[in-house]
Every structure is written in structure tokens, then in C-alpha cells.
Amino acid sequence: MAKTTAPLLGFGASGQIAKTQVYSTWKGRLYARKHVIPANPQTANQTKTRTAFTWLMAVWKLSATEWQDVWNAYAQGQVMTGRNAMGKFNVSPLRSATDLSTLVFSPGAKGGLAPLSIAVAPSASTLTVTLGAPTLPTGWTIAKAIAVAIQDQDPQTDAFYNSFVADDASAPYAPAITGLVTGTLYRVGAYFQYTKPDGTTAYGTALTGTGTPT
Prior knowledge:
This protein is 21% helix and 36% strand. Helix 2 packs across helix 3. By secondary structure, the chain is of the alpha+beta class. It has 2 domains: 3-34, no CATH class; 44-211, Immunoglobulin-like, CATH 2.60.40. The chain has helices spanning 44-62, 65-75, 82-95, and strands spanning 3-5, 12-17, 21-26, 29-34, 107-109, 117-123, 126-132, 141-151, 163-168, 176-177, 186-195, 201-205, 207-211. The mean pLDDT is 90.
């Protein structure tokens, strides 16, 4: 049975009515839908999609706030969360992948520009990621370059969820990601965070590369 809020005025309701309609809220928005009994499909493609989604959500849970910020910025003003946005861009390419070459590290947000170039230099337990800065619109400044590394793997079978983040707020914009495993291949994504003339923050899309710490 549905429960109403302020029933005389009909502000809202939650629950189901006679197994025909379901009322609820999502992110503060009221909605109604047809009552259905959830299916549990198990085709190969559906299983791959679920596995990729599960892998991404585990990565999100362990990721640094600095990496989550770009996804939250992309989702701002939309009916989704930053975690949803990460899934939106990555579930489809990762469900048929055997490595992380298609992983999207940043979708960009608020009109930010992509770096011009990326170079990944390995050293002892470290990857130094140098980004080339684009020509900025009038009044824009670069707040910092952000680089993210995660162990390359098959998202369908492997479970190395930890990511590593570093930033650099000054030219030549070369964040050094430390604490990595020697002899292990990492996928790297890097992007710029900008400050716009009105003081708001924007992010560029990421360029990607690989590196193996020595």
C-alpha cells in the first residue's frame, strides 16, 4: 500500500498500489512507474555488464576524493551522481575489454580543455606524468594537473581496485605518482583542473598512457 505525504493536498506518495503502480523519490524528485517483478537475466553480455559495473563501483569506493571531484563536477545539475557518471562512461567499453586501455579517467566538466600532450616517465616505485598545457581562454588559469594510476588488468576477472593520485600546481605540470609496485604495468590518466574568470572550477578530459615503475 502506498503511503501519502500531506494526503489532502497530494504532495507525494511512496510504495505500491495494488501491484500496478509504484511511487517513490530519487534525489528529491517524485516519480511513478509501473509495478514489475525484477528479472535476473544471465546472458553473456549482461553478465559482462554487471561485472564491469561491479568492478567500477569497487574502484570508485577506494578512489581519492581528488579523482571523484571531476566526476561529481560532470554530474552536477544532472539527474545522476558522480559514481553514476563514472559508470556511464566506462561500463560499455569495459564490458568487452581485457585490459584498461579504454578506461575514461576524466570526461571533462564545465568546458575545461584537454591537455596538449602526455608523457609518462618511470622511476623507483614512481611514475612522473608530464602534461602539456593548452592555450587558455581569457581569464582562465590552471589550478593544477591531476594524474591517476591504476594497475592494468582485466576488469572481468581481476580485482586490483586501488588507484593512486598525484597533482602539480606549477609548470611544467608533472605530478609524480608514488607508492607503486615495481615491475607492474599501470594505466595512467591525467587532466587539468582550471579556475574560470567567475571563480568556478572546470576540468579537462584526460589523456592516457602507460608506465611500469622500476
